[in-house]
Design a protein that fits this description.
The chain is built from nine helices and four strands, in the order ααβαααβαββααα. Helix content is about 65%, strand content about 5%. The longest helix is centred in the N-terminal third of the chain and has 36 residues, at about 40-75. Residues about 1-5 and about 70-80 have low confidence and may be disordered.
Length: about 270
């Protein structure tokens, strides 16, 4: 736009000022960066949320797969102690346990491992098939009564045995045989159900506390069983049950490593 300036001094000054302002405005406009096209906010947010959801889904699937593998490994890994309970492996030396270790072993043998419940479940199942005692009836209600009875008897027996072992200084754990051969290891498993080590961890002694606890648990269980009931007979049956189940559990613990290798549970 052309600016017409007059001859007067004030007019020329005004025209000069207008020209300078026009030139500065033009240069400033040239210095401004060209505006970049902005992505639509709605599409960008939607894409980010979709990617985030896909990442979360992938991480969840990976975590679930890992957890499934670890759970399967734990279930198959008999030597982990989930089914066998605490024991001393054949490559470890027997060392006398402390009072705190005895309490931990007692909890694992009585309450905190699946093996502590499988015995009661199986024995209660046998009682259910025999309808013993018949007053508790059939069905899940009768099974619940029988399982609760076996649970109480087992806890009482283990508690008495743990106290007896602590008082005598006896070893409460099973130790795997350092021998070789199926029959030698089987013999060791059976013998250890009746003999254990004293405080020296070298000399063997009869399992007084273990079978005394089994007898006491059977006697205590008569308190909630229906009539007719006989405390001495029930105590004797408790000792017989320990003889059979204890030998079976020792056998299973003795060959836990072989079972592991057969199932491919080792890493």
């Amino acid at each position: 736009m052309a600016v017409q300036c007059g001859r007067g001094r004030g007019t020329r000054t005004f025209c000069l000022a207008v020209c300078l302002l026009t030139i500065c405005g033009s240069l400033r406009a040239q210095d401004q960066p060209n505006p970049q096209p902005q992505p639509q906010a709605g599409n960008s947010t939607q894409n980010q949320e979709q990617k985030k959801s896909q990442d979360i889904a992938a991480e969840t699937a990976e975590a679930a797969e890992k957890l499934g593998k670890e759970t399967l490994f734990k279930v198959r890994d008999w030597e982990s102690g989930w089914l066998t309970g605490p024991y001393v492996g054949k490559n470890r030396d027997l060392v006398a346990v402390t009072g705190q270790q005895r309490r931990q072993i007692y909890l694992e043998q009585t309450l905190t491992t699946p093996s502590a419940y499988f015995k009661r479940m199986s024995v209660a199942g046998v009682d259910q098939l025999r309808e013993s005692p018949p007053q508790w009836g059939e069905g899940w209600g009768g099974y619940g009564e029988r399982f609760a009875s076996r649970e109480g008897q087992f806890i009482a027996a283990n508690s008495l045995a743990a106290m007896g072992d602590a008082a005598l200084g006896y070893e409460p754990r099973y130790d795997q045989c350092r021998c070789v051969g199926f029959w030698h290891r089987t013999r060791h498993a059976i013998v250890r159900n009746f003999l254990t080590y004293n405080g020296s961890e070298r000399e063997r002694r009869p399992q007084w506390a273990l079978y005394g606890g089994a007898f006491g648990g059977g006697v205590i269980a008569t308190a909630w069983k229906p009539h007719p009931r006989n405390a001495l007979v029930n105590g004797g049956l408790g000792m017989l049950g320990q003889a059979g189940y204890g030998a079976l559990l020792n056998f299973f613990t003795e060959f836990a490593g072989d079972i592991n290798r057969k199932l491919g549970a080792r890493r």
